[in-house]
Amino acid sequence: MAKKPLSPDWTPRTRAVHAGTRRSGYGEVSEALFLTQGFVYDSAEAAEARFVKAGEDEFIYARYGNPTVRMFEDRIAALEGCEDAFATASGMAAVNAALMAPLKAGDHVVSSRALFGSCLYILEDILGRFGVEVTLVDGRDLAAWKAAIRPDTRLVFFEALSNPALEVIDIAAVAELAHAAGALVVCDNAMASPVFSSARAAGADLVVYSTTKHVDGQGRCLGGVVLGSRELIRKTIEPYVKHTGGAMSPFNAWVALKGLETLDLRVRAQAATAQKIAEALEGHPKLDRVIYPGLPSHPQAALAARQMGAGGTVLGIDVKGGKEACFAVLDRLKLFTISNNFADAKSIVTHPATTTHQRLPAEKKELLGITPGLVRVSCGLEDGEDLLRDLLAALD
């Protein structure tokens, strides 16, 4: 297969369309989909040689790699500004690999406490079973990070933009503290998206995405990816994923490739809608608060503007009256879909306290700002005026 060369002059938007493209002898325009579990060798000697060391365009087994998957890995790595990437079966498979692969019994991890429920499960339940000590901190507080990071801290972890409370972590500042102690920096960048947050450039060693979210962006396929240096990806992440079975399927990689082509256009349009809705709803008498990093009222608005350049595609609204009043609003919505995904082309509302974060005890929900009235609002590609009218009608 012929690999299209990558120009250093290409902007991220162009890289998202062209980087990593390999064309077969048929010269297809759209990337080829290779649905195969294995590959054929010309001889026994060739099979032996490939198992010893496979070349860049030589493949062994779909769990280890595939031409379609490799195109996706190359393209998103070029978009993020990373040397390499390894695609996984889901976003949580990517988080699991980024946390489990570098760690061993006796290691210490410092993590922000505002995380997706499944991330907290890995940190608090799974890692502890294998002798890894975990310290959770308020990710917004640099003094807390500094106090928690120790000489034996092996890794720090955070969501650049937390789910669902929309806390913004200062990636560069946390990375500086972690690197001073010799710790790896792992950043879950799913909610911020590759369009608005270049976590690798800010200092993250490993960047994690759920491609189910903005990359696909149309609710079709699960997927994830871990990005970083070639050494970290190929010597640490790849062995873990390929031997534990969490690799991305070729079909899902092809869907993700197609999603990357429109990523920049979709995410910027969705963020513009989120900004518009957040501004319109702020101060509404039926709401206790509107949470959006693009609003001046957000505690980290200045950091969000500097680090992301926009507020993102998701906002939070806290309905007065608790769960009962909140459910009444959700049930009156006509255009928004009640679901538990975000970053879809269709606008989605989620009640975190009873769905994505329901397993958390009440005191932890309160600590993280996950109130009974909190709604996570993911803005899609519908007309912003239609979405606003739908929300206002449900509230009023």
Count of domains: 2
Tell me roughly what share of residues is in helical segments. 40-55%
- CATH T-level fold name of the largest domain: Aspartate Aminotransferase, domain 2
Average residue-wise pLDDT: 95
Would you write up a description of this structure?
It is a single chain. This protein is of the alpha/beta class and 396 residues long. It has two domains: 251 residues, Type I PLP-dependent aspartate aminotransferase-like (Major domain) (Aspartate Aminotransferase, domain 2); 132 residues, Aspartate Aminotransferase, domain 1. The chain has 15 helices and 14 strands. The strands form three sheets. A seven-stranded mixed sheet has the order 3-9-8-7-6-4-5, with helices on both faces. A five-stranded mixed sheet has the order 10-11-14-13-12. Strands 1-2 form a two-stranded antiparallel sheet. α1 runs antiparallel to α11 and α13 crosses α15. It starts with a strand and ends with a helix. The model has no long low-confidence stretch (mean pLDDT 95).
Q: What is the gist of this entry?
A:
This protein is an alpha/beta fold.
Summarize the helices and strands and which ones pair or pack.
Elements: E1 2-3, H1 12-18, E2 22-23, H2 44-52, H3 67-80, E3 84-88, H4 91-100, E4 108-112, H5 117-129, E5 133-137, H6 142-148, E6 153-159, H7 171-180, E7 184-188, H8 193-196, H9 199-202, E8 206-210, E9 224-228, H10 230-244, H11 250-281, E10 287-291, H12 301-307, E11 314-319, H13 322-332, E12 337-338, E13 348-350, H14 362-368, E14 374-378, H15 384-395
Parallel strand pairs: 4-5, 4-6, 6-7, 7-8, 12-13
Antiparallel strand pairs: 1-2, 3-9, 8-9, 10-11, 11-14, 13-14
Helix pairs in contact: 1-3, 1-11, 3-11, 4-5, 11-15, 13-15
